[in-house]
Amino acid sequence: MAAALSLTARRGAALTGSVPAPGDKSVSHRALILGGMATGVTEITGLLEGDDILATARAVAAFGADVERLGPGHWRVTGRGGFRQPEGVIDCGNAGTGVRLLMGAAAGYPITVTFDGDASLRKRPMMRVTGPLSDMGARFEWQGEEDRLPLQLTGGALAGLTFTQTVASAQVKSALLLAGLNASGNTDITEPERSRDHTERMLRAFGAEVQVTEQGEGCRIRLQGGQSLTGTAVSVPGDPSSAAFPLAAGLIVPGSVVTVENVMLNPLRTGLFETWREMGADLEITNRRESGGEAVGDITARHSALTGVVVPEARAASMIDEYPILAATAAFASGQTVMRGIGEMRVKESDRIALMARGLAACGVAVEEEAEGLIVTGGPVAGGATVETAHDHRIAMSHLVLGLAAARPVTVRDPEMIATSFPGFVALMQGLGADIEAG
Predict the structure, then answer these.
(1) Within 13 A of 91's CA, how many CA atoms are on the CB side?
(2) For 213-264, how does the pLDDT look when each residue is reduced to its tens digit (9 = 90+)?
(3) How many CA atoms lie within 13 A of 365 on its CB side?
(4) 321 given a catalytic annotation
(5) pLDDT tens-digit profile of 172-211?
(6) Catalytic residue (choose from 239, 321, 351, 392)
(7) Which pTM value belongs to this model?
(8) What are the residue ranges of helices labelled H in 149-236?
(9) Does residue 150 contact residue 116 with C-beta atoms inside 8 Å?
(10) Which residues pair with 191 in a beta bridge?
(11) How far, in Å, CA of 1 to CA of 139, rounded?
């Protein structure tokens, strides 16, 4: 997989079978980081072992925790009650979530740290996190271009702050909460629209007190400073963002019935499934249960006749990572699927609005790009294109799924980045019957 210069997906027979969902990426990052901040042992099962998570594991070890891999997805982090001065640069690879959460955590300690990443991460904005952290007392020096990595952080002596999010961002909120643990006074965050709440849930599991008060469509989160964390056991549920790819293939490849097991059903992460159902998707959830403090279940997708919809803008926070695969499935729906209020997609690993628009158009799909939106008109999908991914894993996987139902094969270049979030993607899809080959 790592050596492949391209991957090509072709239309073939119906997809069938049951597969496990890879561990949730968001929960995996947080489990490692909180384990490193805590005192004592944190034992993690189901950890996603993608490149982004492994970068975070190396960072946590550099900050002084003992980090051991005990087996597939089974890790032990022994924390010493806080981060220590690391040696050398903290290289976060392509992990945007990892670097922003680590900056928040490190800001609470009297240490000086240089953060960096790969070429893709160096293009992503950082001031959304460094700005409010500076207001708490952290100091930042840009090593090159302002608002971009690499940067140097000097932490310690923080004061809590009152902060209102203008864009629903779990990364910003989480960074401030992690910093607030070691700040004086309270950290109060108001969210007009709720973002994913994994940090709040996990902080409680590690022994912290977090107050969440609902306010209309949003909420107010309060965390008192000076709290310590205690190591705990974390069972990582399956990632709905990764589960979306085999489920999407099940919806668009004729005759398919695909089940993905152990998928997280946190209501702040299931916007895509809700949207698909509005489009007429045959999705069935069975075996509902709880794992690691999160609701999970098994989801079965059957080939469905889809109809375009207007996706509510307020839903964006619960599915921002899933718009690329939604756009791919919308290509096979009748009518238009309108996606607006998704400007955040332009500052992910790539400009995902522009890349999806170009890729879909190259495959013969009628698509209109807006400043903060995308409109896809479904119909016969020609395929037959080689798609540039800009080293974005979700762009690559979305177009490969598209190729499984298009008239002609679809090829993506530089597929090695898929391992950042979904190691084993190709083998899993091939196990369902997908015709995906390396080139």
Answers:
(1) 6
(2) 999 889 999 999 999 999 999 999 999 999 999 999 999 999 999 999 999 9
(3) 37
(4) yes
(5) 999 999 999 999 999 999 999 888 899 999 999 999 999 9
(6) 321
(7) 0.87
(8) 170-180, 198-205
(9) yes
(10) 219
(11) 41
